[in-house]
Amino acid sequence: MIDLHYWPTPNGHKITIFLEEAGLVYRIVPVDIGKGEQFRPEFLAISPNNRMPAIVDDAPADGGAPLPVFESGAILLYLAEKVGRFLPQETRGRVAVLEWLFWQIGGLGPMAGQNHHFRNYAPEKIPYAIDRYVNETNRLYGVLDRRLDGRDFLAGDYSIADMAAYPWIVPYAAQGQNLDEFPHLKRWFEAIGARPAVIRAYARAEELRRPSASGFTEAERKILFGQTSATLRRES
């Protein structure tokens, strides 16, 4: 059994997609980030960066005590190595998957995240910031589109690189992007979204999704967007 500490965000979706694809038995432990549950001491013991997702594997390969893993990229690598799937063993294939996994972690995720914030959540609309991150997201979509020209997936066979990137494309409209401008990306996006495991993963998200599409309350905004080191000390 794997406990998945989770909330329905793009990084959270990465892990439910993997778990569904691999057919692993898991239990979702909700971490409501709007209520500040990511600051609970029991969660910080698993994820010291006070971010979800995180997992606890009750049956690690070394046969030892339950193993906690935090950070979505590290979780994907850990799980791929655990099950021996979605990450090639041969050197060149493995390198290609890791390149695109880290590209998502270091580029697409952070830039799209800032795009979401300044475009949709910031109390003050700052045109420079909006343009900066919408344009950078657009550039990264272009990188994906070029990579997928003539390829079914980002790095050979379907892999953790695809699982990492897909959830960050799902909210493309909220990022100010038009998939029709990126035909290779659009074809890949639609193919990933039609996979039964991906459909099941997003169905799990609906169990926790907020009923309102209006975003966060003012109190939740303060929790999510006003964090400092003092926040961590106070909550823990």
TrEMBL record:
PROSITE patterns listed in its UniProt record: GST_CTER, GST_NTER
InterPro entries documented for this protein: Glutathione-S-Trfase_C-like (IPR010987), Glutathione-S-Trfase_C_sf (IPR036282), Glutathione_S-Trfase (IPR040079), Glutathione_S-Trfase_N (IPR004045), GST_C (IPR004046), Thioredoxin-like_sf (IPR036249)
CDD domains: GST_C_YfcG_like, GST_N_Ure2p_like
Sections of the chain in a coiled coil: none
Domain (GST C-terminal) ranges: 90-212
Boundaries of every GST N-terminal domain copy: 1-87
Stated family: Belongs to the GST superfamily.
Protein name: Thiol:disulfide oxidoreductase
Classification of source organism: Bacteria, Pseudomonadati, Pseudomonadota, Alphaproteobacteria, Hyphomicrobiales
